[in-house]
Design brief:
It contains 4 helices and 5 strands; from the N terminus they run βαβαβαββα. By secondary structure, the chain is of the alpha/beta class.
Length: 136
């Protein structure tokens, strides 16, 4: 199984460094970006499985960047930290204010599991559709 490749953006380099280290210890390949422009530049250069938009990014950045991620890399998942529980149409998952690193790791793991199961489900649906079409 390949490691999940993450792009993790924060505005505060200290928060970014400490949390990125914890994500790497958990087995993820992590590229960091400080600020909105750095996140956008990284998206233009490399493909990622998941983009984490951190708690120290401005509220506007956490709102604007999901659109940018999906525009550049439509299949990339977006997880936004430090939310108020509301859903953004381009955000695949969010973590509310006050959650700890263990909760974040569990959320990433759950998202990774969903991504691994989707192709199997799509293949099963295709076989079912083909079987139904053949029965006509």
């Amino acid at each position: 199984m390949s490691k999940l490749k993450l792009l993790y953006g924060e505005l505060n380099p200290g928060v970014l460094s400490s949390q990125a280290e914890q994500l790497q210890k958990a087995g993820y390949v992590v590229q960091t970006a400080v600020g909105r422009k750095a996140v956008q530049e990284a998206l233009k250069k490399e493909a990622f499985d998941l983009v984490l938009l951190g708690q120290t990014l401005t509220r506007d950045d956490r709102h604007h960047l999901p659109y940018m991620v999906k525009r550049v890399q439509a299949g990339t998942k977006v997880l936004v930290l430090h939310t108020d529980g509301s859903r953004h149409p381009y955000v695949d998952a969010n973590i509310d204010t006050g959650e700890d690193m263990e909760h974040l790791l569990a959320k990433i793991s759950a998202m990774q599991g969903q991504a691994q199961h989707q192709p199997k489900t799509a293949a099963k649906e295709a076989r079912t559709m083909a079987a139904k079409a053949g029965a006509r």
